[in-house]
Amino acid sequence: AFFDAFSGAAEARITLHAGHAVLNGADIGGVDAALALAGALQSGEKAGGFNGAAQLDAQARTVTAGDWQAAQARLHGDKLALKAAFAAGAAPTLIMNGPMGGGAARLTTPGLDARDVALDLGRVLLASDGKGAQADFEGRAAAGRLAAGDAALMNARLKLNGEARTNAITGGWRLSARGDLDSDAHYGGLDAAARGRAARVPVTGSPTPEQPADAIVALDRAFDRFHLSARGLSLDLTADDAVSAPALRLRLKGGAEAALNGGGHLGLTADGALYDSHGRGGFTATLGGPGLPQAKLIVAGLTLEGGGDWTLSAQGDVAPVAG
């Protein structure tokens, strides 16, 4: 009878306000979180549980996990189905299913800077117990700007699905995601060279067979702003523990196409890994279009140490050499 008094319909709201918190090795600052529950509670002498609905709303001023940093991070979930079980001497188990969303004003790691990141997952299935947690998800992601070196994506949109796993014993984790990307883009790595060449080799009027456009100048103009589409893009991040740098593998099964400024085009394909931080990657790139060099680049065995085999065949003009 005692436990019956704590069984039946139940509603609760749990709030958390903290200047600093640590969760699974992540350092979180300025936490504001609220969890609302409504459903049925079962209580017993050695076990209990909850079955019902949940609503989650969480924000953090900063989140740091290894080399990754997020500013103004947020996570929310409405109309989540939640089932939890508790037993004496055992870790609780939890299963949650429903739509979730989130994002960050800024997300950075060495070599990468993302702004206005948003995540809208129409389906999330999360399960956790004493051994770890696993999640399956499907939805969309977007970023106002994502920059890496001289390259940047603007208004990037990604349709994705994937899964994540964590190991509570070792601290290891894995994230796998697959999707299709559409984005405006810019590459500025040729800016300085193009300005110098344009000053030294002035061209008057439109390019002609007798006076072709300089390839560097033409490429800089073509990559100033273009549209990028990638199909069958997949990403795998794996870490053996909570402190080790994750291994990254990037694949491109469906190929990528860039519609360049001025009507040119760049195609990219990869038979194996496009990039592998602990292995070898490679790709084939083809370039062409009005006023641009006609080129094909094949890269195989690419590594972080700079190894690999490169094959380039091209037809174009780089003043004072033509052809």
Overall 3D geometry?
A: elongated
State the end-to-end CA separation.
92 Å
Please give the number of β-strands.
19
Give the mean pLDDT: 87
Run of helices and strands: EEEEEEEEEHHEEEEEEEEEE
Structural class: mainly beta
Give descriptors for this structure.
17-stranded antiparallel sheet, 323 residues, 6% helix, mainly beta, two-stranded antiparallel ribbon
Question: Could you explain the architecture of this structure?
Answer:
With 323 residues, this protein is mostly beta strands. Helix content is 6%, strand content 69%. It contains 2 helices and 19 strands. It has helices spanning 191-200, 215-222; strands spanning 8-23, 26-43, 47-65, 68-87, 93-109, 112-129, 132-148, 151-167, 171-187, 226-241, 247-252, 256-259, 265-269, 273-276, 281-288, 294-302, 309-315, 317-318, 321-322.
Present the secondary structure layout:
Blueprint: E1 8-23, E2 26-43, E3 47-65, E4 68-87, E5 93-109, E6 112-129, E7 132-148, E8 151-167, E9 171-187, H1 191-200, H2 215-222, E10 226-241, E11 247-252, E12 256-259, E13 265-269, E14 273-276, E15 281-288, E16 294-302, E17 309-315, E18 317-318, E19 321-322
Helix pairs in contact: 1-2
Task: Put the structure in a nutshell.
This protein is mainly beta.
